[in-house]
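Example 3.2
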Amino acid sequence: MIARIAKLLLLILLTTTPLAASAQKSSKAVDDQRKRVEQYKKSLDNAKKEVDNLKKEKAGARDQVKALEKQVKMRQEYINEVEAEHALVEAEIAATEHVIDSLGATLAHNREIYAEAVRIAYRNHKQNNSQYYIYSSRNITEAARRMAEMQHVANSRKELADSITSQNKRLEEQRQVLNARSQELDSVTKALEKERRILEDDRVAAQRSYNKLSKREQEAINQQRKQEKLHEKAVAELQKMIQNNTVGASFSKSTRGLNLPVAGGTLTEEGYGATITGKAGDSVHTMHEGKVEEIVRMERTNHYTVYLSYGAHLVTFTNLSAVCVKKGDVLKKDQKIGTIGRGINAKGNEYYYIRIAVYERNSQKQLFVSNFFKKK
């Protein structure tokens, strides 16, 4: 009986500890993903405000189309992030159900053994078996050993009873976690359904606005779409090419406190990418030691996009009016790479800006730019 109880206690320890660690890891993943969703939602709300302001100001149809298309793209990316959260919550529910099944089976087995141990103890008490067992000893040494064995059995039975209480409490806690996660999943599912409906409405509105444009304006927007697709293709190809890059390998998701590429500029995050505004003639510097992977001139604007790799990360600098580096150059931190480019905002006013985005090679995901400039 002692060996059986000891074996059960060991089984409880081995089967519950790893499951608990797994649940904690899953929760952190959900929390991290939720932060991404919340941060992206803020950017999406800003994009919607921009569209609303353009409508109030009765801005040109072309500006409204560009703003609506930007909103559609950001909402689609936001939905992708919510879907990722949805999948993580589902995985956590599955893990919690596995814990509950394991705990339930162990608890039932535990109770069976404890019940048998109690029945044996009761029979021994009624029949004075314990006293006979001690008094039948051949000497004092054997009597002491038998008394120690009996005490060990009693202690093991108490440990088993404590384990049952602990396992029962943990089972109830896991059921509460499962209930909370189920409600959370329901909430995320409803949010997804709502966002998909809004996305479809946004697409219809964008198409209506596009249809109102002149052929010349439609051609300009189509050219912009083409440039964006080429940019996305270039990013995907370069992410594969930097597989063995070691220049700037210290750059990571946890990197903080970097200088803005435009000294004295203002950073505005839009989704994962960010716009950094400055003054005419401002220099653009690399924010970390890196390597120039590619330089592309945009035909429509005659401006440049510079692709820099920092270890396992790819960083794009878009809308430079001029560049002073070439493909293959290894750059030092804060080294000049070019000059800020000109643009026209939704109100038709001239301003100077660059766009910057950070991509992670392994996950193939974009990272939030503002994190890299936060104070350590």
